[in-house]
Amino acid sequence: MIRFFNGKVLSMNGSMDITDGEVWTDGDRISYVGPAKQERPVFDREIDLKGDLIMPGFKNAHAHSAMTFVRSFADDLPLQRWLFDKIFPLEARLTPDDVYDLTRLAILEYLAGGITSAFDMYYKREAFAQASLDCGYRMVLCGALSAGDDWSVGDSDCEKFNSMGPLISYIPGIHAEYTASTDLLAYMKGLIGRTGKPFYAHNSETRSEVAECIERHGLTPTALFEEFGLFENGGGGFHCVHMTEADLEIFSRRGLWVVNCPGSNAKLASGVAPITEMQSLGINLALGTDGPASNNALNMFREMYLAIVLQKLQFRDAAVGDAAEVLRMACSGGAGAMGLEADCLAPGRLADLVVIDLDQPNMYPVHNTVKNLVYSGSNTNVRLTMVGGKVLYENGEFFVGDKPEEIYRRAQISADRLTKD
Amino acid sequence: MIRFFNGKVLSMNGSMDITDGEVWTDGDRISYVGPAKQERPVFDREIDLKGDLIMPGFKNAHAHSAMTFVRSFADDLPLQRWLFDKIFPLEARLTPDDVYDLTRLAILEYLAGGITSAFDMYYKREAFAQASLDCGYRMVLCGALSAGDDWSVGDSDCEKFNSMGPLISYIPGIHAEYTASTDLLAYMKGLIGRTGKPFYAHNSETRSEVAECIERHGLTPTALFEEFGLFENGGGGFHCVHMTEADLEIFSRRGLWVVNCPGSNAKLASGVAPITEMQSLGINLALGTDGPASNNALNMFREMYLAIVLQKLQFRDAAVGDAAEVLRMACSGGAGAMGLEADCLAPGRLADLVVIDLDQPNMYPVHNTVKNLVYSGSNTNVRLTMVGGKVLYENGEFFVGDKPEEIYRRAQISADRLTKD
Fold this sequence. Notes:
The structure is a homodimer. Helix content of chain A is about 40%, strand content about 20%. Chain A has about 425 residues and is α/β, with parallel strands linked by helices.
């Protein structure tokens, strides 16, 4: 049991107001949020917040974490060429050990940036899950099946990764329409029917992806997935940059999640997703970095800033956007998309939280702390990151088993072997 | 005399290559850059870089530093309304003490982000200069005269602020065409003639600014300044978002500097300056944050990322942009625009430099450190900031006279008094 006291609390439980108060944890859950109390249990540790802010951790709702190996390796190429000529051939060489070490590198970056879980699509899922478990980190795996894989593993994967305890979970999905077959889509329909789970995929990231899908099927990716009945249990899409009004209507009606990835969409010149319009339609929104090859950081402060300023730029209106809504997307929204009870600080919710150091120059003056976080916050403000009731990062130190130097060393060896002939 | 050893050196002296080596300082200048030597002088301090990177500091080539007081106070408004309805009325209340304290707050943020000097346009210039001197910080003042001021102070300001020692200098300028009169422009012509100095102004930040200038004068701001002979000694413009081909020709022919401010231009929905085209025309480029009211951070890592990804997004081409050129803009470019001998690490240059911590997750793997800096770097990577041979920031600690807590407290008092009725 841990007590955080003498701080400011942004619980995100309903309002985005900040109040003075305390947060207590018990095991991997939050046990109390509110004003200081005279009577309290005996704690294992009491952490004096010294006026700093405690709030739900960031959720990186779209990632390919182990792609750390291609960070700064294949930049400045168009998406399709980048993916098919550069990335896919290198990925074919990945071993489970590579994915283990490269995922741990990403987890260090997540923790240093206050990110308490990621919604990850990648290969070598056992090694990925093991890396998360060994670090004490929370990950939601997205199926990411494609026509080229043995996609019949969808059922067994769903069972296996949903039986690994509270840190690991699995949601069915395909990589994208353009790497799927109608057989795979039919299989997915069966899988979501058998498991009762939602469905996710890369969706409408580029203009050409949508145009080619229409050419193949006479339907946009969203309409195709809907026609196959894949959204019966909810779910959503990653990117959703080039959506039609009919696509948005499907997302709105079914309560689907759009995972906005503004950094990746800008760097790959894919465009700007119309999240302001999506918000006005009541569509659920979360925020993701995408993989480190296309971003290249795993940094939700940067992503929040991009999410809001790219709306202003795209729609030529400086008044567009609401910082509090963007912060909510980044924390509570991700939890909703990922099916995690970590959307707010409240008794019974997962103790996945972050302490923000407010005593830094970019947080002054204090007119509006939520705007300070979105418009001028940075990873320097992350003082502590807790996942499942355990402190995994505090004041620049990591508590994930191996020392960071060892994780860097091993990730570098993998990256070198994979990228050099 | 200080010795930095056992590190990697990105001197920016000609190439953007990184080599193993040492950097020595003597007083406020660099005395040696190169491989380790057996024979060396006695140093006051020897700093083991432990493999970290030493490079020229970032130069924030456009700022209104003391506008920290309106950070997160008046966001999400169009530029002209923001400026005339919100900002100007509050600025009328500023006292010299306010500017002193609010500038020191900005200096803390600069130091924490590896920014070794700023090119600043603001009021109460004595108080601003005193804040810089008291912190040991380097600032270049830009005149920022406007028709509403007593602009006859241009001559005496130029003399006064260029006689304050090596940390302070002054370059003539006006706020912008839309706050100038033809009398003021004629005075500026005289001033640059008498002083031999270059000329700067806010230039073509918004479409309406350009349209209204054409309506008033039949010329764009750049063409008007050229017609008045203001660029005889060089200079440049801040923003330069909406430039005609003829404007770019003037900038190219006269060797003027464009100071790109991508964060501010995005947040105020002003647009994206065509820096890729400018580069291809050989126009000199520097990078700035603009003031903390319109950005809202003073963070050159974020600005570098925006500078390059907004080009890709705007021109729908992921292949556009060169990370090394953007890093050069942010460090050497600023020095060129600001007239500082701080463009590279070389004997005789100012010892304005930064040590980058490479042992953090966002700097791994090491495929290309320059790309890592631009695409995934952040203020967390700033280990040490040196201005004029003095360490002003190291491992999270500031060495600027007063403790940061005292500077935060005083800045908050000013911000509260200025913004609350």
